[in-house]
DNA sequence: CCTAAATGTGTAATCGATTACATGCACATG
DNA sequence: CATGTGCATGTAATCGATTACACATTTAGG
């Protein structure tokens, strides 16, 4: 492999000069520069990033830690992040925790060992070991989707989004509303959305029958199963609407409802959260909330870049959202 | 930052011994090993990958070059790749060309500079400069989706998949079949699928009216627009079926058809390729071809890993597929 | 014409690991 | 008892860049 030394030799200069020419730093005569560039061109020389980053402590790489690589939400966020970063010449190092808390921590450390300049975490849970690790590695850090104490966080306004959806259902006349959530180890999706739902129901003096509550695991299948369970448990007092905290679970639930011959929204109205592609094209189209994930990703990346430049930035950013009313209610 | 030297000093050994302890290479006494590990634990020491990879020429990172980060197909492939790689302790460095041929080449070189151990390219086109660059960088290389001469390639059986779909439509009695393809700079999606379609039509002595042919750009919108164009151009001789080479374009086309009040499949049958999530949940559900993208990704990764171990492997692998018959035909 | 500043280039240390080679010791073997 | 072998550790070179510092030459200003 050609190295900077080879180039230096061929161009009859020291490697210092080659380095300066390539990085536009310091003084280099026009003559030397030309000679160097020509040889770089001819040889196809590519500088070693490992050597560079060993010396400079920078890599031009941002690490991303995802709970799942295969959901639309994460894809959109990653896409947004990449858009912002690529413009500035940064690359993305991807890791997927498969929802494993231990891996989350492991990957933070691994990314540090790889000298990433910053880390973006799509967090799904909050715990002390995680926070401690983030402190320890001492790398510009950013969390999307969960508020991590002491860490710059971009959070969706889960509470109000869920509250708006619930209110909307109530205004449409629904009084018996079923709910499919997720574990509240996930404070945002599991905690806040359910809290908002319960708060709004209470505000309107509407009872929440615990038979109408299900807990899924984000998957379409779990939506299907939980809907089945809810209907079984409420034979004599069927809910007239369902609030699923993710589109995928809403879709699974609709699948079951259709199978059983229920009409949506006449027999049961359904809402989700996420504004997935599918929500738009299925029949009936699904009422949902758009979290502008691409934009969240873009914002996250540019905030992180600002952090890298040592700009002081706030700790918490609340993202906007938008209700999308469609045919399922 | 703590380095191997700090650890060595604290443990009263040379850094050689620390290195050996950490990498389980050579002899290290139980006593020394324990002392070292304890200190590593306490200090939270993380070895620098830059230094390591500068010395060893390996990074434990595989570069991936995608045409788009945001489609289901690529996501599924990446997911599969990651599954295989993560097991072996490799990470993924992601780049997105946004369908720009020049970036494809740029990123290959960039990935080399980052000392990736191998590169997986989801190619969308084949050209000499690309092939030349791949030769030049001399890194274990693998292509998915296009056959690149001289490069280990995993290819979908586009020809037969498209032929099967066309035959199926013909057996259902369709004789006037419209077609929405993409540019044939993409030899697989653009070239082979259209070729198969035309071949099968010819075999069955069925005419292909050029008014029934559209060219989209993979997007849902383009499917919508091309369908509109086709119907406008064939007022007096409307096709009874549509073959779109991707699910997304099929979905766009269905969107337009529904808007215009056509019944699917009664008035016009529609098929796509890709087995997207959406194809399953929309109404009517879309007949399509499943390319098992996850598996393709997994296979690609494990083939690449075998290459890294210097195993000799074949140049071309043809992937299997499966027709999924649904309600849209 | 003298001095200070600007320009151009090189020397050598440095980043943090790995690893070939050398050394020392304990023990078994013939 | 001489010697070969396994174990444990250390010394120092090396990977390929960047950069502080020194030095030489040119240019500008008074």
What does this 3D model show about the protein?
Two copies of one chain form a homodimer. Chain A is of the alpha/beta class. Chain A starts with a helix and ends in a 5-residue tail after the last strand. The relative contact order of chain A is 0.12. The model of chain A has no long low-confidence stretch (mean pLDDT about 95). Chain A is built from 13 helices and twelve strands. Chain A has three domains: about 5-45, 434 Repressor (Amino-terminal Domain), CATH 1.10.260.40; about 60-155 and about 295-320, Rossmann fold; about 160-290, Rossmann fold (3-Layer(aba) Sandwich). In chain A, β1, α5 (about 70-85) and β2 form a beta-alpha-beta unit. In chain A, strands 2-1-3-4-5-11 form a six-stranded parallel β-sheet, sandwiched between helices. Chain A has a four-stranded parallel β-sheet with strand order 7-6-8-9, sandwiched between helices. The interface between A and B is large, with 40 and 40 residues. β2 (about 90-95) of chain A pairs antiparallel with β2 (about 90-95) of chain B. Chain A binds a DNA duplex (30 and 30 nucleotides) through α2 and α4.
Task: List its traits.
Rossmann fold; 3 domains; 48% helix; 434 Repressor (Amino-terminal Domain); elongated; homodimer; 329 residues; DNA-binding; alpha/beta
Annotated CATH homologous superfamily of the largest domain in chain A: Response regulator
Low-confidence runs of chain A (pLDDT<50, min 5 residues)?
none
Number of domain modules of chain A = 3
Most residues in contact, chain pair and counts:
A-B, 40 and 40 residues
Q: How much of the sequence of chain A is in beta strands?
A: 15-25%
């Amino acid at each position: 492999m050609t190295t900077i030394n080879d180039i230096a030799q061929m161009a009859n200069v020291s490697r210092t000069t080659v380095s300066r020419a390539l990085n536009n730093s310091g003084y280099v005569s026009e003559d030397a520069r030309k000679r160097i560039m020509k040889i770089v061109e001819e040889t196809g020389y590519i500088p070693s990033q490992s050597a560079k980053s060993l010396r400079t402590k920078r890599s031009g790489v941002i690490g991303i830690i995802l709970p799942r690589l295969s959901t639309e939400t994460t894809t959109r966020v990653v896409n947004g992040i990449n858009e912002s970063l690529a413009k500035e010449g940064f690359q993305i190092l991807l890791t997927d925790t498969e929802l494993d808390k231990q891996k989350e921590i492991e990957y933070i450390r691994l990314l540090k060992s790889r000298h990433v300049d910053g880390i973006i975490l799509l967090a799904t849970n909050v715990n002390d070991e995680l926070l401690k690790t983030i402190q320890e590695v001492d790398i510009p850090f950013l969390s999307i989707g969960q508020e991590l104490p002491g860490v710059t966080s971009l959070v969706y306004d889960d509470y109000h989004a869920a509250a708006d959806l619930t209110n909307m259902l109530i205004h449409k006349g629904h009084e018996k509303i079923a709910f499919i959530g997720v574990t509240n180890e996930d404070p945002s999706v599991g905690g806040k959305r359910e809290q908002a739902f319960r708060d709004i129901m209470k505000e309107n003096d509407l009872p929440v029958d615990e038979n109408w509550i299900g807990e899924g695991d984000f998957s379409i299948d779990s939506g299907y199963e939980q809907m089945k369970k809810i209907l079984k448990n409420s034979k004599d007092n069927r809910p007239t609407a369902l609030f699923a905290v993710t589109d995928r679970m809403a879709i699974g639930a609709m699948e079951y409802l259709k199978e059983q011959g229920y009409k949506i929204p006449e027999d049961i109205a359904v809402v989700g959260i996420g504004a997935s592609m599918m929500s738009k094209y299925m029949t009936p189209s699904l009422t949902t909330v758009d979290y502008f994930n691409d934009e969240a990703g873009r914002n996250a990346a540019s905030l992180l870049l600002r952090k890298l430049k040592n700009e002081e930035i706030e700790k918490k950013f609340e993202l906007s959202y938008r209700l999308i009313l469609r045919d399922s209610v």
